[in-house]
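Minutes, structural biology subgroup

Action item carried over from last meeting: produce the structure token record for DUF6571 domain-containing protein (Actinomyces ruminis). EB confirmed the sequence was re-checked against the source entry. Recorded below for completeness.
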Amino acid sequence: MRLTYVSMDAEGVQGFIDALQSWVDDAEVERSELYNLSNSWDEEPVEGVEELLSISTPYALGYAPVGSGSAFAAFGGRPASMADAINTLQRLVNDLQTRLDEAIAMNDSGITFSAEEGVVCYYLPDGVEDTPENVKTYNSQSIADAKADATALEQALASKDGTAEDGRTVEEIAEAMAKKQDIDIYGAAFVNTVGVDTFLDMVQQVQADNTYSTASSGTSQYAHPKAEDEAATDSVVNTMGHILAAASHQSVTGPGLAAALETAVTEDGHKGRTAAMNALLSVEGLHYNAGFLVDLADRMEELPYDGTRPTYPMPANKVDDYGPVYTRASLDPLEGVLTAMGTNTEAALEYLAPEDGGAVDAAGNWVPSQASADRWELLTNRTWDPDKGSEALTTAMAGASAQRMPSDDSTDERAAWATGEAMTYLSGLDEDAFTQTGRDNVAIILGNSMADIEDVINGNADSSGAVFVGDATRPAVLPGNHESDIRALTRLVGMEESSLSILSNAVGRYSTARNQAILDEYPDATLGDGSGMDEAFKTASRNDGALLGFIEQSAVSALTGHGESEAHANELAASTVLGAFGAGLSVVPHPAAQAASVVVTAATPGLTEQMSQFDLTQVEDAEDLSDAAQQEAFQAAMAQISNAGRLPDAAYIDYNGKDLGDLYDWMDDDHQIDLTMLLSDSTYRKQFNHWMESPDVPSSDLEIQFGAGIGHGHDKVAD
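Output recorded by EB:
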């Protein structure tokens, strides 16, 4: 949540408020005396003066800003009375006092502070109107609610009946917590109220609260059969994860949070808190503060880990060291923080390729510091969770790869170096070392390295990089030759449907992004005008086809190598690739990416979606894939060209003189094409293809080029 901090000089603002209040008080005395004097006469000495002096507009209606051209604003369609004007000023005084009181209270609470003496501040989330009510809600009220909720949750979890002193149950308290879980001040105040150690303990207590004995009369006294309501546990733990993430962004408490967590998980007899910490850090979709994550990872990497699993009960020789343990998260100190870096790409890059001490060499490659090299040595040789392996590490690697975008500083060079190191490490692991999540992360890494895969296909994997129009904005290339790594990892991805979907989806996104880069390269061109844009699109189409063919054939080779029949492997790979490719084509390009990167992360929406205008059950082999993908890519490119206004006006008028925007559901009145609608319906596809046959639509052989590219990609797998 982005915040706006409003600072004020406490003494100066209070002086202004006092002065304005004094003026308002004096004005009210004058108004009252004049009114009483006029009212003492049998008849008004001046007609209408009592109406101008009377209290005709209730104070509760508030004040309205006045224009510079008039002394007072009009109330209710009539001239404002003097009382109205005074009440308006009184409301202004009260509102200013509320804001100042909130800022002082926040400063005294230690939640906000200013480096300047005498300056206090309050905060509001971006987009929230600065009103007294909102200032209270997001400041003092958030603190009060956090303290009440934190205290109540601690009490309820410790009580026999699961009820706090205020009468609320755990479920009721959690419901209240969820309403403010993403407010930074609420999160900071909540954690501060109970302390980081107790906050972590409550995670295990929530699980215990939702765990029940399933022992029967015949159960051995040495057995401990249990059943957990995991959904109930997850609901509360997820909310607590949001609260911790919010606290990490708070400017006062956030910087010390990593150190507090380290102290809590290393306390004698409480190593089991590590699992609770990891559960909170691994809540899906959260965005922890980048500085907090890097600080925490730096601390956690120093802690020993021997592969111990969380169990209930813990082994007798570990009970004293670990204490109570949350059993559905890892005890590996790095598991949670590296997982959280999957959705905070800045933190992932700063941890895996820190800027401090490194530099870009004359060849344009990142040269890391010795400390950075030492970190990689540690990460690639340590003991990881016995069940998840290096899943967390691959998540952080995938996050860092998403920083492969052109930049004015060394960001893309650092990201290229980290991605290359990741590829080398991952390609050397046994296939069975990867979980599904690990394979998905590899797909994300490859998805952010499309230009490098093209280099492999086109024989340029020597770190020079292939360059043609549309690639002018590509990020730094991978240092060194990673051809064998890319080939091995593409095969690895091809054996998992979700991973293959991610990578194929990324090709669709990349195709759309590259087409946009070509349009930007030729801002005044129209299709068929001989400007060079046509040839650029043909080259791009061929390269898109080569990417898809390379990925699809790599998957087929991997599947047949693991016992699948060639026919079944073709069917699985072709249908998965095409459906995901179609979904990727319909995504609007990332504004910073263009042809340089598709910028995908674990949190990217729609990354595993399947969408196609074709019946995917009928796509069974390479020939079917080529034919179907040709049409998808062609239609997507032509729709993008059309939406950019690069077709002649005559192209939008049918032979009867009717505007196509009035005829087709997938085209609006401004001739903008809904690509998602188009790619999802066979009837719309036929209509589009019929349109493409119009003599007023410049001819193009993009389909032919794409098909040739698929064949080229297939051949490169066999090389």
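Discussion: The mean pLDDT is 86.
Next step: EB to file the record with the rest of the batch.
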